[in-house]
Amino acid sequence: MPSKLSIGPLPVDEAELRRAYSCFPSGVTAVCALDDEEPVGIAASSFTSVSITPPLVSVCVAHSSTTWPRLRQLPRLGVSVLADGQEALCRSLAAKDRDRFADVPWEPSEDGAIFVRGAAAWLECSVHSEVTAGDHDIVLLQIHRLTADPRNEPLVFHSSRFRRLIALES
C-alpha cells in the first residue's frame, strides 16, 4: 500500500502558496485600452479561455490594482496574448513607477481597444461580468473580434521567470 502524501500544515503560508502557484506555467496577456486618448493597461498571467458560446475569456485582477478601475469602465478592451521575445514589454506593462507604454509598440482599434504589436493573438472584448474571489476579481470578458497567429510562440511564465516552449517530436 502506498504511503500517504504529506502536504504541509494548515493554515497555508503565503510565501509557500506563491511558490506552489508558480509551479503552474501560464501565458501572459496585456489588457489595454484608450482612456481619454491616453493608453492604459495591465499585464495579466491569470488568463484562460472560458466559453465558445458566448465567446468568453477570463482574467484575474487584484483588488489593489489602480489601473483596473480605469479599464473596467471602458467600452472595449484589447487583450494581447504576448509572444516569445516580449519579456521586456511585459515588464514595462507591469511597472508601477513609470510610463508603461514608453517602449511598447501598440495600435488602437476603432473602438478604443489597444493591441500590442507582435502578439500571438488579439481579442477585442468588453466586460461581461465580475466575480469577487478573495483578494482578486475574476473578470469575464466577451470577445467581439479577434485575430490570431499560432505561428507566434507564446510568452510563458513559470516559477517566477519567463520561459520558452519546446516542442517534442513524436
Task: Give an account of the 3D structure.
It is a single chain. Helix content is 12%, strand content 42%. The chain is mainly beta. It has a single domain (27-157), classed as Electron Transport, Fmn-binding Protein, Chain A (Pnp Oxidase, Chain A, Roll), CATH 2.30.110. A hairpin with a 5-residue loop joins strand 7 and strand 8. The model has no long low-confidence stretch (mean pLDDT 90). It holds the Pfam family Flavin_Reduct. Keywords: Oxidoreductase. Belongs to the non-flavoprotein flavin reductase family.
Q: CATH first level: which class?
A: Mainly Beta
Strand percentage, roughly? 35-45%
Number of helices: 3
Instruction: Write down how many β-strands occur, each being a DSSP E stretch of 2 or more residues.
Output: 12
Structural class: mainly beta
Relative helix content = 10-25%
Q: Going by CATH, what is the homologous superfamily?
A: Electron Transport, Fmn-binding Protein, Chain A
CATH fold call? Pnp Oxidase, Chain A
Order of helices and strands, N to C? HEEEEEHEHEEEEEE
Q: In terms of per-residue confidence, which ranges show pLDDT below 50 for 5 or more consecutive residues? A: none
CA radius of gyration:
17 Å
User: Please, how many domains?
Assistant: 1
| CATH second-level architecture | Roll
Q: Please report the distance between the alpha carbons of the first and last residues.
A: 34 Å
Q: Give me the side-by-side strand order of the main sheet.
A: 3-2-6-9-10-5-4
